[in-house]
Amino acid sequence: MSDKGCCDSVGECFFDYYTSKILVIRSKKVGTLNRFTQALVIAYVIGYVCVLKKGYQDTDTVLSSVTTKVKGIALTNTTELGERVWDVADYIIPPQDGSFFVLTNMIITPNQTQSKCAENPTQASICTSHRDCKRGFNDARGDGVRTGRCVNYNDTIKTCEVLSWCPLEKIVEPPNPPLLADAENFTVLIKNNIRYPKFNFNKRNILPNINNSYLTQCVFSRKTDPDCPIFRLKDIVEEAEEDFQTMAIHGGVMGVQIRWDCDLDMPQSWCVPRYTFRRLDNKDPENNVAPGYNFRFAKYYKDSDGTETRTLIKGYGIRFDVLVFGQAGKFNIIPTLLNIGAVSKNFSVYISVSSQIMHT
């Protein structure tokens, strides 16, 4: 009997049909709350979800490639090198694509040869006798391989003798003002190609309205030439609220930010790059240990008798990193329905709860 009753109950439940009970509340307060909430739903969906957040669109992030080309000439006159003209082959070291380094200052040590000389005085290299200098010792932070002799560095200081490129580079501050002060007038052509693979959309920052004639004479300006992809280095640094000549002494790192935010439901001509600039390295006056950006490189020569010599250059300069960001959106029915459905459900629950509270 119990089994049959259970089966009958299940059968009856299987063919049952339920509907929601509609409760009409005749209340100005509840009615006003209901209409006000409905207005909020409509305003939220249209204003925030659709207009501001573009919830009706599918999105994709940018893929990018960047190449650069720097141009400019600078003239220097130094004791070590005399009067000299520097072109792009001299001050772009090494040639790079997404980032590029521009030489702005240097400490030059000419006519170095493989020979023996007194090490620069440090706590580890100062000596009083040969016993203080271990033969064959190689300090990673030193200047060469020690010969085992303690020799005069000057009239008052003795240091260990080393086998190295002599004369050694002097430990001095970089020149102020910087040697390549004219670098502020150098220009760089930045070529940026972007792609949104989900939408099969490609574009580059040399826009269709730019021709060869315009490109040979334009320089980026937010007021007169906002689409020009050629930038003067001084303008980049100044837009980051920095002084080029001050930064050029010890060097630094600048960021060139290119942002591509594209609404692909609009004409493609509306999808254009936006440029911003900022300094990326630390410039804390209270923590100025090892400031700026520098590295060493050398130019090698051979005399007629086969003796190899080199000119050592400790180069200071500004590295420019080109950083590309962006997001594109295009209408898609799926995110549209999902966003509207989620909003409607949440507000329906809110209306129901609010109505019960007001009725109570």
Describe this structure in words.
There is one protein chain. Strand 3 (74-78) and strand 4 form a beta hairpin. 24% of the residues lie in helices and 36% in strands. Strands 1, 5, 6, 7, 11, 12, 13 and 14 form an 8-stranded mixed sheet that branches. Strands 2, 8, 9 and 10 form a 4-stranded antiparallel sheet that branches. The longest helix has 27 residues, at 333-359. With 360 residues, the chain is of the alpha+beta class. Helix 2 (28-52) runs antiparallel to helix 7 (333-359). The chain is elongated. The chain contains 7 helices and 14 strands. Receptor for ATP that acts as a ligand-gated ion channel. GO terms for molecular function: ATP binding; extracellularly ATP-gated monoatomic cation channel activity; purinergic nucleotide receptor activity. It comes from Cyprinus carpio (Common carp).
Structure, briefly:
The chain has helices at 2-14, 28-52, 88-91, 212-215, 233-239, 244-250, 333-359, and strands at residues 57-61, 63-71, 74-78, 82-86, 99-118, 145-152, 158-166, 187-196, 201-204, 230-232, 252-263, 274-279, 294-302, 308-331. With 360 residues, it is an alpha+beta fold.
Radius of gyration: 35 Å
- Write down the overall mean pLDDT: 85
The global form is elongated
Sheet having the most strands: 8 strands, mixed
Strand content: 35-45%
What's the total count of β strands?
14
Structural class by secondary-structure content? alpha+beta
Helical amount among residues, as a percent range? 10-25%
| Secondary-structure element order, N to C | HHEEEEHEEEEEHEHHEEEEH
What is the count of helical runs? 7
Distance N terminus to C terminus? Answer: 46 Å
Poorly predicted ranges = none
InterPro entries: P2X4_purnocptor, P2X_extracellular_dom_sf, P2X_purnocptor, P2X_receptor, P2X_RECEPTOR_CS
Protein name: P2X purinoceptor
Glycosylation sites: 185
GO molecular function, one term: ATP binding
